[in-house]
């Protein structure tokens, strides 16, 4: 087994000088293409080792598992794992850090070994800190380099990281991967005023092969470049890889970005806590994302029972680190929604796939008159329409006793200028298309280009005032009773 699996050890150790043959499709040829049953046997052994390690080092897991009646010695199969090991949630991590600041009682290495501190944005409530040891940072760099290799990036390529360099793991993970790959790392960043124009200018000068950011930002950046008189197709980009939000696995959005830049688009990304977050990530030949099971073990589960759903079905990813020592996540429930499959892949890797990427968060679902719809489905439908101006907002409100959805859609500048008739025709087209794609009618508003603010990070397109509305009704009832 050891000879058969390249650089597979616990604790994880990596040869930082290792590179595959230049013409190899795979970074670790055997590990990526081995029969699934063989890999699963290795994963089970690793899960046993990690559970024993967490039991010894993390009161957090001992407490959780005691409550659930689980002990690492009970783990004899992957079915035991899903049946007996309880999921943990982001709220559990937050509570553990509040009780044991700053890193929580699931930090498994001495405090002095913490090498980087990152964390959640914490826009609502207490932020959660990610403590990453130096060894884990190497594991992250090696895993990301391996997946970036699968996307086609090679030593010597220039890779522009166009995401904010703060606590967000996206930018840092891409940077660590680029460095380990022997690429020319170009950490342009994002987030300061005027940066998009300068980024476009730099891309035009530097002609990098690779680009990392969010899909929303890539579209905004292309719009900015075009406004500044630059042609993004002449940036010379070959590989654009994304994370952070749905888009890169949605055909109409992927094609829009590929068309804007004349580059190939790849999807990746799970959660900051799960870094190396590219462990769900695309490869050059296989659409959507692969679950790189020997980096993080992904189970797509029923959101209620947390048991794996059959391949072909929808569920929520539950993730377990196999190569992290500092804050290993064991069955972290993502709260996202995806479909997993397990078909032979064009790239020959024997990993399960997420062919549609991650659709959204389970609680992002909008229910209007009994129909369920995800914001990413609305975006996908709009991106299919010639004339779509690149941004929209979804307003959900309670009109009388019924929930209503209003979608405010930008028209592109050229059509907008053509006047009222063109605008009206676009209105009818949007209404009909959304009705047929979503199965429900919504109120449509067509607005001028650039009406809605752009972002250089993850888009927030849903404005939901149903809760405020219900609250107002309650207040009124109190006053009148
Ligand atoms: N999320 C992340 N990646 C996604 C993707 N490719 N498709 C759809 N939704 C995605 C550091 C990486 O960018 C991962 C990341 O964004 O981590 P965060 O900031 O902790 O946010 C995690 C959430 O972003 C996930 O739960 C998905 O809802 C979304």
UniProtKB/TrEMBL annotation:
<dbReference type="InterPro" id="IPR000873">
    <property type="entry name" value="AMP-dep_synth/lig_dom"/>
</dbReference>
<dbReference type="GO" id="GO:0016874">
    <property type="term" value="F:ligase activity"/>
</dbReference>
<dbReference type="InterPro" id="IPR028154">
    <property type="entry name" value="AMP-dep_Lig_C"/>
</dbReference>
<dbReference type="InterPro" id="IPR042099">
    <property type="entry name" value="ANL_N_sf"/>
</dbReference>
<feature type="domain" description="AMP-dependent synthetase/ligase">
    <location>
        <begin position="120"/>
        <end position="315"/>
    </location>
</feature>
<dbReference type="InterPro" id="IPR045851">
    <property type="entry name" value="AMP-bd_C_sf"/>
</dbReference>
<keyword id="KW-0436">Ligase</keyword>
<protein>
    <submittedName>
        <fullName>Phenylacetate-CoA ligase</fullName>
    </submittedName>
</protein>
<dbReference type="Pfam" id="PF00501">
    <property type="entry name" value="AMP-binding"/>
</dbReference>
<dbReference type="Pfam" id="PF14535">
    <property type="entry name" value="AMP-binding_C_2"/>
</dbReference>
<feature type="domain" description="AMP-dependent ligase C-terminal">
    <location>
        <begin position="370"/>
        <end position="466"/>
    </location>
</feature>
């Amino acid at each position: 087994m050891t000879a058969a699996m390249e650089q597979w050890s616990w604790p994880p150790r990596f040869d930082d000088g290792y590179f595959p043959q230049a013409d190899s499709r795979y970074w670790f040829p055997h590990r990526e293409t081995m029969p699934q049953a063989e890999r699963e046997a290795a994963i089970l052994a690793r899960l046993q080792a990690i559970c024993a390690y967490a039991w010894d080092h993390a009161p957090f897991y001992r407490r959780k598992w005691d409550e659930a009646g689980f002990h690492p010695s009970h783990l004899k199969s992957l079915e035991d794992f899903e049946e007996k090991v309880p999921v943990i949630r982001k709220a559990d991590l937050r509570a553990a850090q509040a009780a044991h600041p700053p890193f929580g009682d699931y930090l498994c290495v001495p405090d002095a070994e913490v090498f980087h501190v990152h964390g959640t944005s914490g826009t609502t409530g207490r932020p959660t800190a990610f403590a990453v040891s130096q060894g884990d940072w190497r594991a992250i760099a090696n895993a990301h380099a391996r997946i970036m290799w699968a996307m086609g990036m090679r030593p010597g390529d220039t890779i522009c990281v166009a995401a904010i360099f703060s606590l967000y793991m996206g930018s840092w993970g891409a940077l660590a991967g680029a460095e380990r790959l022997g690429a020319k790392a170009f950490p342009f960043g994002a987030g300061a005023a005027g940066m998009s124009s300068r980024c476009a200018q730099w891309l035009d000068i530097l002609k990098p092969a690779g680009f990392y950011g969010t899909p929303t930002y890539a579209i905004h950046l292309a719009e900015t470049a075009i406004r500044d008189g630059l042609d993004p197709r002449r940036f010379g980009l070959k590989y654009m890889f994304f994370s952070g939000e749905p888009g890169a696995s949605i055909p109409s959005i992927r094609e829009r970005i590929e068309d804007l830049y004349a580059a190939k688009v790849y999807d990746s990304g799970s959660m900051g806590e799960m870094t190396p977050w590219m462990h769900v990530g695309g490869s050059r030949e296989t659409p959507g994302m692969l679950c790189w099971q020997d980096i993080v073990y992904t189970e797509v589960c029923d959101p209620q029972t947390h048991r794996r759903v059959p391949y072909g079905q929808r569920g929520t990813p539950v993730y377990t680190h196999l190569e992290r020592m500092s804050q290993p996540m064991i069955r972290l429930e993502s709260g996202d929604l995806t479909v997993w499959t397990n078909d032979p892949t064009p790239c020959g890797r024997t990993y399960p796939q997420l062919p549609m990427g991650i659709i959204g968060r389970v609680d992002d679902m909008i229910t209007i008159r009994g129909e369920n719809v995800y914001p990413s489905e609305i975006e996908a439908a709009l991106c299919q329409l010639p004339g779509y101006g690149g941004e929209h907002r979804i307003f959900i409100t309670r009109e009388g006793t019924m929930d209503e959805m209003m979608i405010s859609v930008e028209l592109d500048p050229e059509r907008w200028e053509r006047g009222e008739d063109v605008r009206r025709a676009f209105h009818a087209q949007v209404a009909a298309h959304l009705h047929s794609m979503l199965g429900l009618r919504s109120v449509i508003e067509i607005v001028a280009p650039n009406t809605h603010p752009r972002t250089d990070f993850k888009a927030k397109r849903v404005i939901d005032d149903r809760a405020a509305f219900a609250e107002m009704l309650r207040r009124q009832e109190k006053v009148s009773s």
